Amino acid sequence: MKEEYDFSGGERGKFYHEAAAFDLPIYLEPDVAAFLQKVAIKKGVEVETVVNDWLRKDMAFIETFIQERSLGPG
Questions:
Q1: Domain residues of the chain, as ranges?
Q2: For residue 40, which of 27, 28, 30, 54 has the smallest C-alpha distance?
Q3: pTM over the 0.85 mark
Q4: H or E element: which one contains 31?
Q5: CA–CA distance, 63 with 68 (Å, rounded to integer)
Q6: Each residue's pLDDT tens digit, 13-70
Q7: How many Å apart are CA 13 and CA 22, to the nearest integer?
Q8: Do 36 and 49 touch, CB atoms closer than 8 A?
């Protein structure tokens, strides 16, 4: 590695793309992955579809819980 690098000719934001999306790597324990794979095969869909469906349902449940809690007793 060099002691110093010259960035004087660099262009800020050259590779920045506002609409870029990043996939998050999710690592599952082997038993969880096997279970999800079985469910996906039974449904005829990809594992990602099963996981996203379940997470969306959990998100909706959590949002409902938060809303009800923020309203407090009637």
A1: 41-74
A2: 54
A3: no
A4: helix 30-43
A5: 9
A6: 999 999 988 888 989 999 999 999 999 999 999 999 999 999 999 999 999 988 888 8
A7: 17
A8: no
